[in-house]
Amino acid sequence: xxxxxxxxxxxxxxxxxxxxxxxxxxxxxxxxxxxxxxxxxxxxxxxxxxxxxxxxxxxxxxxxxxxxxxxxxxxxxxxxxxxxxxxxxxxxxxxxxxxxxxxxxxxxxxxxxxxxxxxxxxxxxxxxxxxxxxxxxxxxxxxxxxxxxxxxxxxxxxxxxxxxxxxxxxxxxxxxxxxxxxxxxxxxxxxxxxxxxxxxxxxxxxxxxxxxxxxxxxxxxxxxxxxxxxxxxxxxxxxxxxxxxxxxxxxxxxxxxxxxxxxxxxxxxx
Length: 270
Prior knowledge:
By secondary structure, this protein is of the alpha+beta class. It contains 5 helices and 14 strands.
C-alpha cells in the first residue's frame, strides 16, 4: 500500500501492478465529424498484470466490472469478466473505489485481444489517412514492454497472413496487419495505389532525444522537435524504408540493443 493525500486527508490505497494504454486519433470519424456515440478522440485502457511467479500466493484486490453499456454473460469464463469498463479496487464487502475507463482488461486477456480491442481500429484509421498515437504508461515492472513488444524478434514473425504466436505484442502485430491491409488494397487497385512504409525508432532519455536507428558514433547527434505542416517532427532523425514486417522487426531489434537500460528492484532491464 501507499499513502495518498487528497483534499487534506491521507488514505491508504493498494499499490497495484497495472499500466495504462492511451490511444489517440486525430479526428473522431472518417469525415472529421464527431458522432453522437464518440464524445472524444482519446481513449484510455487499463490492463491488469497477472501475478509473477515470485508473487505466487498473493491475493488480488482488483476486479474488472461491466460498464453501463457492457453485458456480462454469467456462463462465460465462470462468471468472471475479462474485458469491461470499470476497475474496482477492494471488494464489495469492504470499502472499495471504482474507476471507469474506455476499456478495462483483466490479467486473463491475451495479447491478441488487447491488440484487437485497443489498436486495430486506429490502424484502420491510419490507412484511411489519419494520424494515430498509442502510449503505454505505468510503473516499472507493470508489463509495458511485454504488451507493446512481447518477446518477439524478426525470427518470431510469421509469414504474411499466417498465425502469430500469442505472446507477440502490439507493435509486431500492427506491422504485420499494416502490410496485410496495404497489400490487399494494392491488389484491389493495381494501377491507382502504391505505398511505402518508413519507420523511426527514437528514445527520450535524460531530456535528450536519441536516434536508435542512426549511425553508431562516439558522440550521438542531438535531435530537436519542431512543428512542420501542422504536425511535429524530429529534425535529422533516421527514417528506414521497410518492405515487410520482418524488415521492420529487424530494425526495431537492432534499435532495442541501443536503448539505455538499468536494473531496478522490480525489473532487471528497466
